[in-house]
Amino acid sequence: MILILISLLSISIPSLVKPSKEVFTENLFVSSLNNGDIITIFNFTLSSQQYNEDNSIYMPWLFLHLFEQFSLENFKLTISQGFWRTNLWGYQHVNTGVASGTELSVKFFDKTKNTYQKWHDFIHLINGLFCTSILGLLPQFSVQPKFNDGWWYGSLGGESVCTENLQSWKRLLPCKNSGLASLLKPTSLLSTRFHSITIEMNKQNRNGHFGNFHLNLISKTVYNYQSFKEFTLQNLFNSKLFLRCPVSIQSQLLIKKSKYFDVSSFVTTQNSQDSDLVVIDLNNSSSLNLNKFRFLAKVDNTQRYTHSPTILLHSFFKSVSQVGGRICIQINNPFQQSFNARFMQMIPWQIRVFLHTLTFVCSNKSKESMDFFGEYTLARDGMRPLLIELDILLPANSKCKIEFGFEAAFLKISEFPPDANSGIHVPGAVLSISQDDSTNLSLFSTFTNKSANQKIFGEPLLILLPVPDFSMPFNVICFVCSTIAIFYGNIFALSTKLMKLFPKEEKLLENEQESTLTVKQKIFKCFCNLFSR
């Protein structure tokens, strides 16, 4: 009877379990940048066609629940350490471009409901989920861009990635300690020139229910070429790749060869359109022993690298004082063609911007003021920042400047941010160029999404606020307490004791008696006088 029941269960249980419709892939891209530095990009992609969150196996259940609870269409969080130097490294990969600091963008399906409260609650959940410090986005650094309807956007220029963020990011992977994820060690990632992590998830809505989900986890790191002239993956990441991820249907190592970067080991590669692109299938363990796979960075300090022309974005201050100054954003276009671009700059509400001073001037052969179309989301004290959105035209071979004046607001003591003496960060400007006009701009053309825009990020700025002396109350308290401690005892004794006159003869007799007392008697008398008080 027991054997019959077991056989029936073995037949019925597989029929109840539906095959998984989730696909997980992992890729590692290794190449050299324009100045010879080494860049690595980990790309983990998880796609799901499940329409019910209970049927999900690999997709993080918490994200599915958040998308259903807040009616999200797209969510993207980027946290970076350092600043991407376009003049040295070239453009960022279109799908992995990140700003300096922390950046969060969310798109809701229903734009008519109370999205402000949803944004408020969503930030608190994300802050706890990834161990971040993004509560500063409420409400000082959050806006709704008018050019991108339905989106909420926030940026903090002073918040960088840390070990806790990386560990929370790795927990979202189906394979946390095997496959390419085993190479991600905080000690090697956070001691580099640039490091960033990205979490992006979107879904297709189907009558208000769950649709196709797409989760993309990206880790990008730039290493100093002087430290890695000839290296292996083990030397680069301080970790070995032991096991393959059992749930990954694709695991590849992509190597972009160049004049200053090559591989020295014999490898079996897949067919690729780019002859300089080496594609290695990591699921085929017999094809390569990665621990012995060597990279060659052919670098010489005497060599001069021929950098390809790049559109540069540089932010800086002019005429800065304790009252205010001017913010200048310089854009250089070295190409022989003009580009249509979209400029976006967020200014915290603690900085009062004079919009009538906003100018856009380009100098080609002659210096002239250019026309532009702008949208402005005005700031409100304690509520939201100022957002400047401009549609501009960058002439060929031109240097353009966007300038505007500002003054630092005089705040109440309750409105100052923590550590106000260190100043307040202004998020870097963002310049978006249509990919139709910039097919030659991307550094990694093989992996470029033609439907996306090439984004160039400016430096975040630090503005010192006029702050009071927060230590003054503490100093006053210490001074008063010290004064009381020194003078209170004597003044209290003089004001409470009764003064009694003695005749001169009695005083002399008392002094003679005291002079004849022994040391023990004097000590005993002193204690008696103390306790008698």
TrEMBL record:
Keyword Transferase assigned: no
Keywords for the protein's UniProt record, in alphabetical order: Membrane, Signal, Transmembrane, Transmembrane helix
Xref: InterPro entries: PIG-T
Assigned GO CC terms: GPI-anchor transamidase complex
Domain of life: Eukaryota
Segments crossing the lipid bilayer: 472-494
Span of the signal peptide: 1-19
GO-annotated biological processes: attachment of GPI anchor to protein
Record protein name field: GPI transamidase component PIG-T
Organism: Meloidogyne incognita
